[in-house]
Amino acid sequence: MQVRVIGAGLAGCEAAWQIAKRGIKVELYEMKPQKKTPAHSTELFAELVCSNSFKAARVNSAAGLLKEEMRRMGSLLMECADAFSVPAGGALAVDRTLFAQAVTDKIKSNETITVISKEITEIPHDGFNIIATGPLTSEPLALDIKKRFGGGLSFFDAAAPIVTSDSIDMSHAFKASRYGKGDGDDYINCPMNKEEYELFHSELVNAQRTPLHGVDTADPKVYEGCMPIEIMAQRGADTIRFGPMKPVGLTDPNTGRRPWAVLQLRKENKDGTMYNLVGFQTNLRFGEQKRVFGLIPALKNAEFVRYGVMHRNTFINSPEILNNTYSVRNKPDLFFAGQITGVEGYMESGASGLLAGINCSRAVLGKEAFVLPDYTMTGALAGYISDVNVKNFQPMGANIGILPALDVNIRDKQLKAQAMADRSLAFFDSIIEE
């Protein structure tokens, strides 16, 4: 039995490696060097197109925990990252060329992996396959994916930030739905008076934005349905007050009156540990998002687990398509991995490839799927992208907010994060995959 892996980015290389180390032959398809996306500049596999940082190294951080879990599962990417790290304070950063070269050499020298330089334009109909073509999947394959999954392929220009629930100042907020609809606490409402709103609006329209580069400039159209809040605000002083910040149907219990303007926060996950800033898609610089949105009283001390972004991206509507093993529902021989699944970040992509590779291997060998508990970061990401309860699906990176709460209440944030890391790593200490 042989497996095809399509795409030799971070996810594809990790998936191919995991399959090969289990004694199963792999055909790894990569369209470079014959064809490149606008984001790529070399012929190497696992090319890092943005930063050379894999984010925080400490285990009691979301990014650090994810990387440690990958190490314990025998990750190729982590082996190469650790071997070619460069000084970066508390982060794990790499020499991007040496890192990519190391991954490429490992893949090409593995006798169980056959590299085929060819563009795949449609999902193969036979055998076991892993699609790991990334956020810039070539148009023919993207169209075939869209056709196969009933239009499940999504495109977006902008996404809204997400904050942790425990960092919202509830003394300046209240729970309610407009006109009392729903359960009554579906939203956290962040009211503003006239003076607060006018200051916020002024700072918003004058804030610094992230410049669009490379692939982004090839698709500059801003769709009305995901208009960045700062662009909408430029249309007039009251545009967003009559739009995403409209206060109609709401009464602030602290004043007994309707606010001048309201930002609504909506649960991002089932446990309510994260909240999305409704209608606040943005292309502001990250520091500006924290500064400007922090002018809203309830968000003065907000902790952002994801900042808003604006860029061209392609990802499937995974909650409707995938299991938490990264296999397609009702088609156990087809897997997706990497950013096309809606995970966001270098190592998040690698972790999805790792899990997809393991589970594809187990499917080939007739074994049960390897499902990680949701209190591991790798398992939580897999759970998030496959959660049918997640609506308006947008990409997600590793963060503490997607982990379930601890059995005990720990107020200190560092101690809380450490306890969550200990809980996850205890699981990896207790199991040995068959």
What does this protein structure show overall?
α2 (62-72) packs parallel to α10. With 434 residues, the protein is α+β, with helices and mostly antiparallel strands. The protein has a six-stranded mixed beta sheet with strand order 6-2-1-7-19-18, covered by helices on one side. The chain has helices at residues 10-20, 62-72, 76-83, 96-109, 139-148, 194-206, 229-233, 286-293, 318-321, 346-364, 377-385, 413-430, and strands at residues 2-6, 25-30, 53-56, 85-86, 91-94, 113-117, 128-131, 153-155, 158-159, 162-164, 174-175, 187-192, 261-267, 274-277, 304-306, 309-310, 314-316, 327-328, 331-336. The chain is built from twelve helices and 19 strands. α1 (10-20) links the parallel β1 and β2. The model is unreliable at 214-223 (pLDDT under 50). Helix content is 30%, strand content 17%. The chain has two domains: 2-156 and 313-430, 3-Layer(bba) Sandwich (FAD/NAD(P)-binding domain); 159-310, Beta Barrel (Elongation Factor Tu (Ef-tu), domain 3). The longest helix is centred in the C-terminal third of the chain and has 19 residues, at 346-364.
